[in-house]
């Protein structure tokens, strides 16, 4: 089958989507349920409807756009990703899977085929943990991994509850109605930039993702009496930032000591209150991200970090709270879909390799309700979550063609 991908149209749409941003270009920032996110969603729905897709928006704001197949009674295939963007990030993370998914559908439409199964394009709400500290909200609720009541009471940094925020943003209905029935989808395939350097280094066009690393996050809070930076003598201090600083070093050491380069640990949030140069900190909060493709090894690292977090607080004599935000298992791709991706690469005369995903994705949670796999494309210098993030039109074109061919194979 001959497929003609209009990558220029997709690139123009990626550029347009990047303009929905709360920071100056080339950086992008689109946080869930902000006016900017809502405006971007409006743009996406226009595009989906113009392609003849039937759009449904569920109570958490997932956008599900359906291209009816020849036999609508069959469970549909799904593809898609996210369009929220973390602070000061780039324009390809997630968006390539949504707008590339749209282009894959339009490519099949243009080729004049009518797949047997329907194909649904999903834009998942809040894959990023930016606002509610919890990533993959949309796919966790779709899969039933996150209970609706637990989701409703998540709060943002201003203390606003998710349930109120989403309703004020116009997403009504019961969160309990988001969950999919078993067998709803026949498969889910997500196109995404690699967010690492391996494909580019190997000079390969496509990564067929066989597994997704297990992500975890925890929050540690130390509080102390604070005081005047001049008046309180060193011997009299209990500065919670000292415990926090020791913990930051410990996270780095624990990840390095795991015995595998696949373990990674990051302190991405370190908040100091009241943040005044002449005031001893009174409240220090860290959010710590730990991942590994080996779940039990990740958990051993987490245990060490939690133990040491308590020890540092105790040694300093400051109140300490340790709260797990999430600790999810790894996911494995379905071998049949991986084989379909590999056949698509061969048909499209594109080079590829099998690989694991070190970032997490909505596929991690979709794997709980249907077979999944992912298609990776290279990004320049492996950069992501930075304004410099870049994938070339040729790389994106290759990803779209492989996605289109894979969906077509699976839909027949
Ligand atoms: C999602 O962007 C992640 O942190 O992997
Ligand atoms: Mn991301
Ligand atoms: Mn992403
Ligand atoms: Mn991600």
Describe it for me?
The protein has 412 residues and is an alpha+beta fold. It has 2 domains: 7-213 and 330-411, Aminopeptidase, CATH 3.40.630; 214-327, 2-Layer Sandwich (Alpha-Beta Plaits), CATH 3.30.70.360. Helices cover 35% and strands 25% of the residues. The chain has helices spanning 7-18, 35-50, 95-110, 137-143, 148-152, 162-168, 198-202, 240-256, 295-316, 335-347, 362-366, 393-411; strands at residues 28-30, 54-57, 63-67, 76-82, 85-89, 119-124, 185-193, 206-212, 214-223, 227-228, 264-273, 279-280, 283-292, 320-327, 331-332, 352-357, 372-377. The strands form 4 sheets. Strands 2, 3, 4, 6, 7, 8, 15, 16 and 17 form a 9-stranded mixed β-sheet that branches. A 4-stranded antiparallel β-sheet has the order 11-13-9-14, covered by helices on one side. The protein binds glyoxylic acid (GLV) and manganese (II) ion (3 copies). Residues 86, 93, 128, 385 line the site of one manganese (II) ion (MN). Zn(2+) 2 binds at residues 93, 128, 385. Its EC number is 3.-.-.-. Homodimer. One of its GO terms (molecular function) is hydrolase activity, acting on carbon-nitrogen (but not peptide) bonds, in linear amidines.
Q: State the secondary-structure class.
A: alpha+beta
Query: What is the string of helix and strand elements?
Result: HEHEEEEHEHHHEHEEEHEEEHEEHEHEH
**Count of discrete domains:** 2
Count of beta strands: 17
What is the general shape?
globular
CATH class of the largest domain: Alpha Beta
Protein name: Putative hydrolase
Binding site for Zn(2+) 1: 82, 93, 192
Enzyme class: hydrolase
Family: Belongs to the peptidase M20 family.
């Amino acid at each position: 089958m001959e497929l003609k991908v209009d990558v220029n149209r997709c690139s123009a749409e990626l550029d347009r989507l990047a303009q929905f941003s709360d920071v100056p270009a080339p950086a992008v920032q689109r946080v869930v349920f902000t006016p900017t996110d809502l405006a971007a969603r409006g743009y996406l729905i226009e595009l989906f409807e113009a392609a003849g897709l039937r759009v449904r928006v569920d109570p958490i704001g997932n956008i599900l756009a359906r291209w009816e197949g020849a036999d609508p009674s069959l469970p549909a295939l799904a593809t898609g990703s996210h369009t929220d963007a973390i602070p000061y990030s780039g324009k390809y993370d997630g968006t390539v899977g949504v707008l590339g998914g749209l282009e894959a559908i339009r490519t099949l439409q243009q080729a004049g085929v009518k797949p047997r199964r329907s194909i649904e394009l999903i834009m998942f709400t809040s894959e990023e943990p930016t606002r509610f500290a919890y990533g993959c909200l949309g796919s966790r609720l779709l899969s039933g991994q996150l209970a609706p009541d637990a989701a409703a009471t998540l709060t943002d940094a201003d203390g606003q509850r998710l349930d109120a925020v989403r309703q004020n943003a116009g997403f009504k209905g019961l969160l309990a109605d988001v969950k999919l029935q078993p067998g709803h989808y026949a498969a889910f395939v997500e196109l995404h930039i690699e967010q690492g350097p391996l494909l580019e280094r190997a000079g390969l066009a496509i990564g067929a993702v066989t597994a997704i690393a297990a992500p975890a996050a925890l929050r540690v809070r130390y509080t102390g009496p604070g005081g005047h930076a001049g008046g309180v003598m060193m011997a009299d201090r209990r500065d919670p930032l000292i415990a926090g600083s020791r913990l930051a070093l410990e996270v780095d050491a624990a990840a390095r000591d795991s015995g595998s380069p696949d373990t990674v640990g990051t302190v991405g949030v370190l908040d100091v209150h009241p943040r005044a140069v002449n005031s001893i900190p009174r409240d220090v909060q860290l959010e710590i991200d730990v991942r590994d493709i080996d779940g039990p090894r990740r958990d051993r690292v987490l245990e060490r970090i939690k133990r040491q977090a308590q020890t540092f607080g105790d040694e300093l004599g400051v109140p300490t709270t340790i709260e797990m935000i999430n600790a999810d298992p790894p996911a494995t791709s379905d071998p049949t879909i991986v084989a379909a991706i590999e056949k698509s690469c061969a048909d499209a005369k594109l080079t590829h390799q099998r690989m694991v995903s070190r970032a997490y994705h909505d596929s991690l949670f979709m794997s709980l309700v249907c077979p999944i796999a992912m298609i990776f494309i290279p990004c320049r210098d492996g950069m992501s979550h930075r304004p410099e993030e870049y994938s070339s039109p040729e790389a994106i074109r290759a990803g779209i063609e492989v996605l289109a061919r894979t969906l077509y194979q699976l839909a027949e």
